[in-house]
Amino acid sequence: MRPETIFKQIQLLYYVILTGLIVFGIAAWYFVARNGYVMMIDASMERAIYTILIILVFVGIPVSYVFHKKSVSHIDSSLSVSDKLTKYRKVLFVKLMTLEGLAMFSLIGYIVSGAKPYMYIYLILLVVYLISRPGKKNIMEELQLDEEQMNF
User: Fold this and answer.
1) Residue 88 lies in a domain
2) Is residue 150 domain-resident?
3) Which residue of 77, 80, 100, 106 is surrounded by the most CB atoms within 10 Å?
4) Residue 30 and residue 80: Cα distance in Å, rounded?
5) pTM of the model
6) What is the DSSP string of 119-139?
7) How far is 132 from 115, CA to CA, in rounded Å?
8) Which candidate, 150, 118, 119, places its Cα nearest to that of 136?
9) What pLDDT digit, counting tens, does each position of 101-152 carry?
10) Could you tell me the residue range of the domain that residue 133 belongs to?
11) Structurally, how many domains does the chain consist of?
């Protein structure tokens, strides 16, 4: 496959997940604003869910970044640009899905309990996701490619 095709797939993957996160976030906010939370849970259960989410966020974000960085550094430099981008796409997918999973868990907590801290965590995760955008320059730096190799 051509490098420009793989790069477009990487961009598409990022924006499809981003769109899903935003749509689901708006839908969750609208649903809770219009109908209220889904079910009544006692305070101890809500605290337990919130604590689990906080732990997952504080562990998941750094782990996803460390995994991404280590996995990208293990991509063989002798591979073709297409092969490097293919491997990069797989590594990036794991990172993006980790962030997306945490954001969805937060939104589900918000829908179930109606507690605003879940929405705040979702918004923080959305910002982290936005920072992770796989631009051409970022990919070039991470894969140590030069302008010629990414000239498309």
Assistant:
1) yes
2) no
3) 106
4) 47
5) 0.91
6) HHHHHHHHHHHHHT---HHHH
7) 27
8) 150
9) 999 999 999 999 999 999 999 999 999 999 999 999 999 999 998 888 777 6
10) 3-143
11) 1
